[in-house]
Amino acid sequence: MHSAVLAVAVGILVIVAYEDVRARRIPNALSLATAALGLARVAFAAEVIDAGYTLAAAIIIFSITFTLFQRGAIGGGDAKILPATALLIGYRELLGFLFLMSLCGGVLALATLAAEKLDLSCRRFRRGAYASSNGQSDRGRVASKGSAVPYGVAVATAGVITLIAAR
Q1: Are the C-beta atoms of 152 and 19 separated by less than 8 Å?
Q2: Which of 16, 48, 49, 62 is 20 to 30 A distant from 23 in Cα terms?
Q3: Residue 64's domain spans which residues?
Q4: Total domains, the chain
Q5: pLDDT (tens place) for every residue of the chain, 167 residues total
Q6: Element of type H or E holding 104
């Protein structure tokens, strides 16, 4: 991959990770920029068959992530950035990317759960003896259902590593 395209791709993916951690949202503009960069890369591919396989893989991944989004399993930003990143990476590196993304996502999920657990423990300690402000016990409570893993970080991390390694 050309160095300028690689630098732009890494820059976009770093911003994706930052925005997902900061706001728990991935702006559409970042997904579109990633997809556009991927389409440009596909358009200038030497092999037409490679381009077709990459487009087919991205469409399949989009179908899967869209279904997962509709069922509430993943966020909308994740459903868009994953196929866009797959388009950027290309089908030849896709399985390695997905495997690495799964590993990064697992570590991220564990870190998020640990941070929530630590935060809950710190709140208990500050309030003293597990008593909440209304006098009820916090013991046995789980993290709020509204908390989410910023999975765009896993997608971006795996994308950057895969792009650099495939260079």
Answers
A1: yes
A2: 62
A3: 3-107+150-166
A4: 1
A5: 588 889 999 999 999 999 999 999 999 999 999 999 999 999 987 789 999 999 999 999 999 999 999 999 999 999 999 999 999 999 999 999 999 999 999 999 999 899 888 887 777 767 654 444 455 544 444 444 455 889 999 999 999 999 999 97
A6: helix 94-127
